[in-house]
Amino acid sequence: MNIQLEKMKQNQECERRKRIAEEKHKEWVQKKREEERRERKRKLSKEMAEKAIRELEKMQLQEKADIKYKEWLKKKRAEEAEKKKKEKEKEKEREAELQEKRTRSEKIFKEWLQNARNKPQPVLNGYGFPHGRSTGLY
């Protein structure tokens, strides 16, 4: 009877230890799952933060590129406008020089024409006497 009682106590103790072990195992598994869930959540949040930072950097880079492009375009347009302005000035200068040349040519032509009208005509010496001398042909 004592042995049976002792065996029963041992069985109860064994069962109690088994239950405690199972409970501890369940707690450990639960803690492990919770820890893994927290770790996944932390990694996800870290990835999201990194992704947001990358997107922000990309947007900032794009904005800088847009600003630089706009500055370049503005500079290019200003250079082009300056070039057109210089070309127009050169064209005006050429036109002015050409007009001045025409005016000068007309003035010189009118002076020549005036001088040609006022210039005495050479006297024609007829009868074979050029310059008043005999040619000896008769």
UniProtKB/TrEMBL annotation:
InterPro entries, per database record: CCDC34, CCDC34/181
Compositional bias per record (Basic and acidic residues), positions renumbered to this chain: 25-38
Top-level taxonomic group: Eukaryota
Domain Coiled-coil: residue ranges: 4-135
UniProt region (Disordered), positions on chain: 25-45, 78-102, 117-138
Pfam families (UniProt xref): CCDC34 (PF13904)
Protein name as annotated: CCD34 protein
Organism: Platysteira castanea
Gene symbol of the encoding locus: Ccdc34
